[in-house]
Amino acid sequence: MRKRIVLPVLSIFTILVSGMIAAPASAHGYISSPPSRQANCARGVVTGCGDIVWEPQSVEAPKGSMQCNGGGSRFAVLNDNSKNWPAASVGNNVTFNWVLTARHRTSTWEYFVGSTRIAVFNDNGAQPGATVSHPVSLGGRTGRFTVLARWNVYDTAMAFYSCVDLQVGGGGGGGNPTPPPTSPSPNPPQSPPPTNPGGGTWAAGTAYGVGATVTYGGLSYRCLQAHTALAGWEPPTTPALWQRI
């Protein structure tokens, strides 16, 4: 009798552990424009980024950190200010655009320059859409600086982090600036990955601009927001990025 009880329990435990090991990394969200540091890594604009190239949406750590990687054990490269992070050239009012691959219920979205919180948006536990945009005033700041964005999940102790390097006004920008985000950001001009102007088959790792058309599963789609395609972001599953035509 004892063996008949123990063996099934061990079998169940083995199945659960195997499932945990085999499970793919969760997908969540990040700022796509102006390009965040992880977006620039995923697009190949910045090299030597490590695993963040494949998981720009996965910068998850406990709430309250002021580090670009959230202070976790992963993606520490995002905190390395010695890397040549491109600074997007913007005006004093910027729209930050998020792409969400898992739409967690949200408490707040926070934006910081240094230790100063410059904007907060309260969702009061609502579930966001597949894309989220926030108009933020930079408070008259000029020059080059970094904005830390924090997406605080409503019903867990976790948050998602994105750092965006900006240049307001001329001089000393460093890197290669990108146009102001008055519309979804085009691909950065410095050594971008291959782009698809239209007519080809969707492929992970390809940068698509707004209006690009692809085929997938025998159907045609038009790109709604500039991005670099990742596995799991196929057109049928990401209506915020692709429209069937």
Automatic annotation (TrEMBL):
InterPro entries: CBM5/12, CBM_sf_5/12, Cellulose/chitin-bd_N, GlcNAc_Chitin_IntDeg, Ig_E-set. The keyword Cytoplasm does not apply. The keyword Flavoprotein does not apply. Residues 171-202 are annotated as: Disordered. CDD domains: ChiA1_BD, LPMO_AA10. Residues 1-27 form the signal peptide. GO terms for cellular component: extracellular region. Keywords: Hydrolase, Signal. This is Cellulose-binding protein.
